[in-house]
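Troubleshooting log. The previous run stalled partway through. Resubmitting the same three chains, unchanged.
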Amino acid sequence: MAKEKDNTLRLKFDSSRNLAPALESRSAAKIDSKYDLFINGKFEKPDSKKYFDTINPADEEKLSEVAEANEADVDKAVKAARNAYDKTWKKMPAKERAKYIYRIARIMQEKARELAIIETLDAGKPIRESRDFDIPMAANHFFYYAGWADKLEYAFPNRKANSLGVAGQIIPWNFPLLMAAWKIAPALATGNTVVLKASETTPLTAMKLAEIIQEADLPPGVVNILTGAGTTGAAIVNHPDVNKIAFTGSTEVGKIIQRAIAGTDKKATLELGGKAANIIFEDAPLDQAVEGVINGIFFNQGHVCCAGSRLFVQESVFDEVIRKIKDRLESLIVGNPLDKNTDIGAINSRAQLDTIHKYIKIGINEGGEMFESSCALPSKGFYCRPTIFTNVSQSSRISQEEIFGPVLAIQSFRTDDEVIEKANNTPYGLSAGVWTDKGSKIFNLTTKLRAGVVWANTFNKFDPTSPFGGYKESGFGREGGLHGLSPYVHLGSY
Amino acid sequence: MAKVVKNTPSEERLEVLKTYKIYVGGQFPRTESGRFYIATNKKNEKLANVCQCSRKDFRDAVGSARGAFGGWAGRAAMNRGQILYRIAEMLEGRKAQFVDELMKQNSTEAKAVEEVNLAIDRLIYYSGWCDKFQQMASTVNPVASSHFNFSAPEPTGVVAIIAPQENALIGLVSVIAACIAGGNTCVVLASSSMPLCAVTFGEVLNSSDVPGGVVNILTGSVSELAPFFADHMDVNAVLYCDKDAAVKTLIREKSALNLKRAFMYDKMDWFSDEAQSPYFILDLQETKTTWHPIENIGGAKAGY
Amino acid sequence: MTKKISIPDFSIPSRIDQVGVEERASRFTKRSIKNETKTNGLLLTLNMIDLTTLEGKDSEGKVKQLCSKAMHLHEAYPGLPTVAAVCVYPSMVKTAKKALGNSGIKVASVATAFPSGQSSAEIKLLDTKLAVDDGADEVDMVISRGRFLQGDYNFVFDEIAAIKEACGKARLKVILETGELVTLDKVRKASDIAMYAGADFIKTSTGKISPAATMPVTLVMLEAIREFYYKTGIQIGMKPAGGISKSKLALHYLVMLNETLGEDWMNNHWFRFGASSLANDVLMQLMKQRTGVYQSSNYFSND
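Second attempt completed without errors. Output:
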C-alpha cells in the first residue's frame, strides 16, 4: 500500500509579534506646522512670542510647535471667558446651550479618524485605543452632557443649580482629548465658560478641538484653549477672576493647587493619582481575571491614574495566575502606535520613561522578582516592555508609589480581611478591582474598599454616565454622570 | 459662682457645681494638658473652669473617632436613625438644663427655649435622613456596555469640626447631626466662649446609645487648635463654621497635606431652615461607583 | 511529556465570565491581517478545513464531488494545499475513502446518532464501529446534552470513554453542541469532561443548531485545552464548526488560536474548521491577493 502523504502544512502564520505591518495612514490627519492660542474664538499669537515643539514619542520626530501662554495670555483668555459668560452664555436659554454642545459632539464624531491619528501621533498611544476608546468616549461625553443643559432642575432636588462663572481647567497627557471632554462638557452644560490648558507633551488634539469649537460656531470666548507648561497652569490657578479650578494630574500638583487657592473661594475638583488594588480570589473566573489584570495595568502603557498597578492573588491560585499572566504578556505586541495591531505603544515622554526605568530598578533592588515580556523594542522612540514583579511586599516602593507605566506589583494573600486591609493601606483611593464568582463576597469587598470606582469582575471601564473620581489623596469631586454636574454649580434655593 | 441657696425654709444647702470635662471615646476625661480656662458670659460672670485642650487631646480624639468609624459607618442606616432619634429624646428630657445653660451664656429665656427646641427638631430631621439621603444621592448609571453600574454615597471618614462660635447649641447640634447621620465620626471643637452646652451635649450623647468615639467634643482655643484640625493626616474632612478669613485660609492650606475635604460654613444662620438639608450630609460623603458585568445569553434555536 | 492525570470533580461549577470572554474575543477581531501574513493565514485556513456535507439528501455522487473538490481546490492557483479532511455520515465513509485514495486527506465521520445523540449506547457504539470499520480516520461524536444538562456528568464521561475505545486508531472529536449548552460555564465543563474522557479533539457544534461556533465559545474551549495541557502535558485539538464561512472570520480564529495556544497548535493536526462554504471564500481571497482584483463566485467551483 502506498504510503499516505502527509499534507499538513507547517506554514508559519507568524508569531503574533511579527504580523505584517498594518499602519494607519498618517496622511488622513492634517497637522499644521504651528498652533497659536485659542482665545475669544480666534487663534491668537502668544504675548510670550514663544513656541515649543511637540514630538511624536514613537520616533522622537517633531510634529508641530505650539504657543507658550504666559500670564498676559492667560489674563486675556480669562477676560474673554468672563465677557462671554456675562454677555452671552449665562443668558442663553439652556436648550440653546445644549445644541451647541451637541454640535461639538457631532463634529468630533465626523472627524473621529483624524482625531485618533493625531492623538496617537502626539501621545504614543496605540491607534486601536485612540480609535476605539479615546475619541468615541470623548464625543460621547459631549453628547451626554449636552442633554443635561436644560434639565438641571431635575439633578438637584429642591435646589437651584447656578453656574459658577469662569472655569480654569488643566488636563494631563494620558488621555488628552478625552480629558478635555471630561472637563469642558459638564462645564458648558452647567452654564460656565472655560479656559483650558492642554498638557505640554500632548497639545495637538486640544488645538483640533479648538478648530471644532470654531466650526461649531460656539460664541467667542465660551471656550478658550491654551498651551503651555506648569507656569501657564499656575497662572490660571492664580488668576483672581477664575471661579473654579478643575485639575487632573499628579497628587503632588493637586496639593499645590489646593494650597494656592486656599485664600480664595474658588471651587476645586481634583482628579489625582492612584495605586489601585486588583484582587483575585481563588473562585474567580481566572482567565477573564487575568485579562482584566492585563488591561488594568497595560492599557495606555499604564499611563492611567486608575491603573490596577497592585495585584493581590489568593495563595491557592497564585502560581496558576502568574503563569497565565506571563503567557498573556508574551502575546502583547509592543511597537509603533500607528500600527493597528499594537497593544502597547510608546511611553509619552523621555522623562516618563526615565521615571519608569527608575522604578523598575528600585523594584529589583528591593528584592522583587522581575519578569518582562521577551519582545524586541523599536530602536527609536520611548518604549518599555510590559513588566511584572512578584516577591513584592506592602513596604516596597513599587507597591506604594504611583509609577504611571506598564509595571505591575504582585502580592499574594490568604484571607479576605487581610486583602481588604492591604488594599486600603495606601494614601490613594481612586479605584479597585475584585474578582470572585461569589456575589456576597463581591459586595463585602466593594463596600469595604475605600475607592471611588470599584470594578467587580471587570476593570478599567468608563462611560459618560458613570461618575469617576477618588477618595483620600486621589482627589475630590466626580466627573461623569449626574454626579459630574455638581462640581460646576453652586446650589441656591428657589 | 458657688452660692448658698435656701433649699427649704429651714435649712441652707451648698449647690453641687458641675465640672465641665471633655468627651472623648465615650468617656469624660480632663485635658491631658492639665490646663483650663475660665468661661465667662457677657456680664463677665464666671461660668466654669473649662478644659483648655491641647493638640494631644485632639490626637487622642482622632484616634477614638478613627476607631469608631468602621462600626458606625457599618451600622444599618435605620439603626443610626434610631440613635439620632434617641439623642433627640434625651435632649428633650434635659431641656431645662440646656435652657439654664443657654441663659447663663447670654440668652434670654425665650431665645433659649427656642434654641433647644430647634436643636431637638434638627436631630429628628437628620434622624429621618439617615436612611434616605442615600436614595436621593444614588444613581443607577445606564452605561453603554453590558455592565450593571451604580453610584452610591459612602461616609468620608473622620471629620474635624470647628463648631459655630456664636451660638452654643444649635450650630453644634446641626453640624454633628449631619456628620454622623451620614456615618462619619467626628472631633468637634466647641464654641470657646460658650462651651457649656457642648459638654452637656456630650452627656446627652453618652446616654443615648451613640457608641463611644463617634462624637468627640473638645473645648479650647480655635486659634491654637485649628492648625492641628487641618493638618492631621488621619482626618478626612474638616468643617470650619466661623468667619475668620485667616483661619479659613490656614485650614484650606493645611488641608492640602492629605487632600482633606475642607468646607467653610461661614455664612450660615443656624436658626434658619437653610441650615438643615441633606446637602450638608452629602458634603461629607464620597461617591462610590461599582461596575459588574451582566451575562447576556440568547436562546438556542433548533435547525432540525 | 504526559503527567500523572487526576480527574477533577466535575460537580464543582466552572467559572467563566461571559462579558469578559466576549471582550477578549472581540480583541482578536481588531487584529489587522495584511499581505504575507494574510496569504499564509489563508493557505493555512484551507489546509485546516474539514470539508463537510451532512445532509439527509447526501448521495454517493455528492460525496465523490466533494472529495474531488477537496483534492483540487482551485486549479487556477497552482500549489494550493488540500483541505484536511472530508466529513460525512457513516454511510458515506466507504465512498469518501475510495474517492480520496492516498491523497492524504482524512475521512472524518460523524457518529453516535448524530446530530441529536438520542439513542442507546449499543447503537452509538455500532454507529462508531461502522464508520471505523469502513475506514474513517476520524470520528466526530456528539455528547448526550440532555444527560449533561441533567448533571449526569459521569454518564457523559463514560459514554465518551466508551466511544474512544471503539475508535481504535481513529482520532476522536467530541462535539459539545455548545448552542444547546447555552452558557459558557457549561461549555467549559463539557470541554473538561470530554478531554479527561479521552477526546483527541473538542468540537463546538453539529452545524444543525444555531448558534453554532462563535469566537467566545471557541475561546473558552481553547482556554480549557490550554489548562488541560498544563495539567496533563497532553495536547488536544480544537474544531469550531458551523457558521464560519468567511475568510476574515477564519483569520480571526487563527489569531485567537495563535494568541491562546501558540504555534504548536497552528496546523491541521491540532486545529480544524468544520465548514462547507468557507473554502471558496478563502480561494477568492487568495486569488484577490494574487491578482489584485476582487473575485466573483462564478469562477469557483461549487460542489
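Takeaways: Chain B touches chain C at residues 145-147, 293-304 (CB under 8 Å). Chain B has a mean pLDDT of 94.
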